[in-house]
């Protein structure tokens, strides 16, 4: 079976080359142009080249839109990366502040806060509530 497939493929490939034989062009006495596989007897005929020309290279104008699209996409990607980096830096600063606040709340039993322009001391229940809230924020944001 494999031999049959190989032989058939080879025959098909070679037959197309044979079938693309020479083509002739000539003009008869009435001025009509004719094409044929054999030249006419007693008349001048021009042999035509039937080979397919290689594809033309893309012109710069055709290549430029793709390059422009790539450039635009790169600019967008770079802008997004910059925004993500800025957001990450802001998140890191926020986490540092939260951790500092948590350390202050845990290490100082007497925490004072400013409310309405006056300083007041947090009682133990308020301090534990703030510690719990800060730990939750750190868990949600910083891990």
UniProtKB/TrEMBL annotation:
The answer on whether this UniProt entry bears the keyword Ribosomal protein reads no
Q: Where is the composition biased (Low complexity)?
A: 38-47
Task: State the taxonomy lineage.
Answer: Bacteria, Pseudomonadati, Pseudomonadota, Gammaproteobacteria, Pseudomonadales
> Where does the signal sequence lie?
1-20
Q: Which domain of life is it from?
A: Bacteria
Q: Where is this region: Disordered?
A: 38-57, 109-143
Query: Which keywords has UniProt assigned to this entry?
Result: Signal
Q: Where is the composition biased (Basic and acidic residues)?
A: 111-143
Keyword Coiled coil applies? no
- What is this protein identified as? DUF4124 domain-containing protein
DUF4124 domain mapped to chain residues: 10-62
